Amino acid sequence: MAVSPIASPQPFADAPAGAAPPLSIYDLTVAYHNRPVLWDISVDVPAGQLVGIVGPNGAGKSTLIKAVMDLVPRAAGRVQIFGKPYKQNRHRVGYVPQRESVDWDFPVNALDVVAMGLYGKIGWCLPVRRKHRRAALAALERVGIADLAQRQISHLSGGQQQRTFLARALAQDADLYLMDEPFAAVDAATERVIVDLLQELKRAGKTILVVHHDLQTVVDYFDHVILLNMRIVAAGATRETFTKDNLQKTYGGKLTLLDQAAEAMRQAERAS
Amino acid sequence: MNRRRRLGRTALVLAVLLVALSGSAAAPATLPGGRGTITDRSVEWPTWPQWRRVLLLEDYNTRLVLLGTTLLGCAAGTVGSFTLLRKRSLMGDALSHATLPGIGIAFVATTFAGGDGKSLAVLLAGATISGIVGLAVILFVRNATRVKEDAAMGIVLSVFFGAGVAVLGIVQQMETGHAAGLTGFIYGKTASMVPLDAQLIGAAGLAVAIVCLLLFKELRLLCFDETFGASRGYPVIVLDVVLMGLVMAVTIIGLQAVGLILMIALLVVPACAARFWTERMSVMTIASAAIGAVSALLGASLSALAPNLPSGAMIVLVATCVFLVSMFFAPSRGLVARAVRRRRLESKVHRQHLLRAIYERLETAGNAPLRDDSRASAPVAIEDLAPMRSWSRRQLEKQIQQGERQGLLRTEEGRTVLLTPAGCREAAGTAHRHRLWELFLIRYADVAPAQVDRDADAIEHVLDAQMVAELEALLRQQDASRAVVASPHALDRPAGPAHGSTTP
Fold it and tell me: pTM for the full model?
């Protein structure tokens, strides 16, 4: 990959030295159809913290967490989970995809969905057994909708569907959680449940990375924040990082050169 | 309204489909040189011995055919439920059409090499290879170009089928043998089934059942949330290949019985029908297998009774009947059940409108009933109710009669109406919900007071107890258990223009 014109941002200054961080991204570049959507991302996520990824639409927030899990091909760069490639530490990562990413008219109930988080433990070709169902029910209990376990998922409200997805990730019992817009279009009650849950996970020493869209709540919810707009604009403790100046850079100042370069690469690909 | 129009359109499309289906069963084939049953469509009422032969499973061949097709329907129904939920139903169609050139080429090549070109094993091997090539072309076109998957399938489906028809045309010209047996693959012809075919279908069906049983959990994850599956390390591509392999297996063994044109129906229709009856994927898969089996059994029986009707068409028509019954009469998801639910809500809305109108008249007169009232209310003149809403006199009277039947109100001498205790409670409850919502809109949503009446109109019927409790807490309504909160706007306001938006 060509050297980026953007200076690499500082990684988190307060990342503990020594132990491998839960998530370490180095020089990551992702391109769709040769059009880069993420440029030279380098960041270390500190252990046991609640970290928000914030940026405008199309900034590559979802792409970033998908690239971490090898769900989209990387053009360049390296990602490590607790010091190892994702493949080797997959079981330590819990994933909450965007709610809109699936068809909720699917013929399964909430418990079935949560049990999907346990498939790794169950193993290939073996059925979901009683103890797994119990574990799934316990996960639903933690998000406060155990009473809806047998309900078909299209009969759940948006917030309940989101909680089901969270419960599925909880069932995995991971150390690092990657959540894609868990607060998107949920009711106030669900939002409270999610906030409490995030705090609970944090107290249990888990690290949580949350793609977030609501700037109003960033300061309240997150210890650390990554401001993203195709590249990392700033990353660090929320208090110092979530500044007017940095937000201006993330949302306001369009990096026309970056856009133009991406467009040029796309055109070149088309011509070839 | 919209929904009703959509329903009408669906029904129309289905009717056209049915006509087209029966047409395809009755229309003479256009294939060049097709012989025997392909062009001969004369249908005669089966004679008594024919009935007996089929219904009592008297002869060996009929037993064989029915067993083979039933197993096929079962296998296709099983696989179909997965492809339907994976939203890859049409892949099966492209696949089956792509098998035709392989059949023709296998026949030509084997005949030239001196072998038996009509050996089923050879023909099906050709079909398999050709089908895989077709699938590969679809994937290549989709991945390497900007052509989308549906277009790529359209291209492969038609081009391969065209090529197949051309190859069969050439086969006709060959002196080494006629291709009458080959055209049977297009429409399906069960009569020629031999024990080996039934065994083949049985073996393939068993394999399909085993794979589906073992990988049920994994395939369900693939169908529901592929991204999550991939994040957990499941090889999505491998699972997709397995699924396509199952489709392929079912298609190949189904070519003979159902024919490649209608094979898709056996993959899609039972699964769609089964979906109406259940919200559990395991139940749906079993139901789909059962519907497929029954359709295949009945369809093949019909075809055996009237040998000039191709079995494929018969099977599809039976399956479609099952589908139509499911679509209309399935509980909960069926159209009738949905219409009933909608109707019930509408009548509740109308009933509560009347009750609230009566409540407001009573309140104006200083006789407002309570939400836990146990007495009948004071009478209200029907004359006074007429201007409360934009209802015609007839509608109002009809609604009053309805309310009387439900024991919510009583009329006296056709001039006045009074609420029974039950009517009092529902009327007060409705007015209470209506006003809570109005207050909420005014205080929290910044809606103008003149506007809230109409906005709250639709909501008051659907607010459940929990939401009411939340609203009461939010709006700090004291003594909320008995009295109805005061209206935030004047009640003698004339009814707004046409309350059309009453159905939520």
Answer: 0.82
